[in-house]
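In response to reviewer comment 3 from the previous cycle, which asked for concrete evidence that the modeling workflow produces usable outputs, we include below a single protein chain processed end to end. The sequence was submitted unchanged, and the resulting structure tokens are shown without manual editing.
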Amino acid sequence: MIVINCVGVGHWGPNLVRGFATNPQARVDIVCDLSDERLALVRRNIPQIGRTCTDTLASVTDPAAHAVVIATPVSTHYALVKAALEAGKHVLVEKPLCSSVKQGQELAELAQRKGKLLCVGHVFLFNNGVRAVRNLIRSGDLGRIHYIYSTRTNLGPFRSDVNALWDLAAHDLSIMNYWLDANPLTATAHGQAYLNPKVEDVVVASYTYPNRVLGCIHVSWLNPRKVREITVVGTNKMVVWNDMDLTEPVRIYHKSVNIEREPVYSDSFGAFRMQVHNGEVVIPFIPGPEPLAAECNHFLDCIQGKATPINNAESGLAVLRALEAADRSMKNGSALVNVNEEIANTNGSRLRLTVGENADVEHTAR
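The workflow returned the following structure tokens.
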């Protein structure tokens, strides 16, 4: 039986607590949050948990725990994950991994030295609709991928610790990297802060991947509709994944455009003929477990050596690099930025919070 301590039961944390508390491989011993009200609510709704407390440091370093699950504000991730790893715990931390690439690299190296797992809560990697699209891409059924366009919007929840890009696009970047089995090379982004002058609530970012694949992301906290949709356009077929459609999340469109060249050389557009193919729409059946339950089970399997984590520290670092690159682009007039460019000064020190400081340990993402 794997003993789990969970820190942070704001918006998403209770789901993680339930996911582990109802898993036969695990026992949730301690649930921690700075809010007594949130702890009382979790205790009422999830009776399988052991005890509750407000001492974050004691929770992540508890000698009885094999692993720690962290679902707190991003600014607290670095200190909490570091303390847990140094105490010899396996860690599952909500996305994004932490506040900067510099911090992420330090945590990844620490986990490696300690021989412990460091996994990031990129829960959509365990979504069977997302996995179905990955299989279509990898099989070559869609042909060569031209571009991927993602929309993730809603009216709120509004945050002050990170902007909409870090809050929402972390999901889409993890999905695109997973689908393409690659990380972006360059980034350009533009955002606006309408509600809080220091935090962008609307961001449009574009990433270039190997083989000229374009990844476009639109995220917003200031939108009348909750949208969670990604379109993949290939040379043979196109596919749309809609996370808001619970019964038919994936639709495959047998649509394509062929370019026929005239045999005689010409500089005019008339030298090309566009042939549009409109075929059927296929809606595959997507079975399988709920993504969060699958993520929790995967983490426990990895602790026991039954699986290799797909949401490891390196995948979390790849997302951090892409997020930092987009931030740099926004600060420099939407300039094209090399994602892998090393920068001397990161925003990590500005957002860093040490364990024990009086911060709100409530995760309001998603």
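Residues 2-123+291-311+342-351 form a domain with the Rossmann fold fold (CATH 3.40.50.720). We consider this sufficient to address the reviewer's concern, and the full set will be provided in the supplementary archive.
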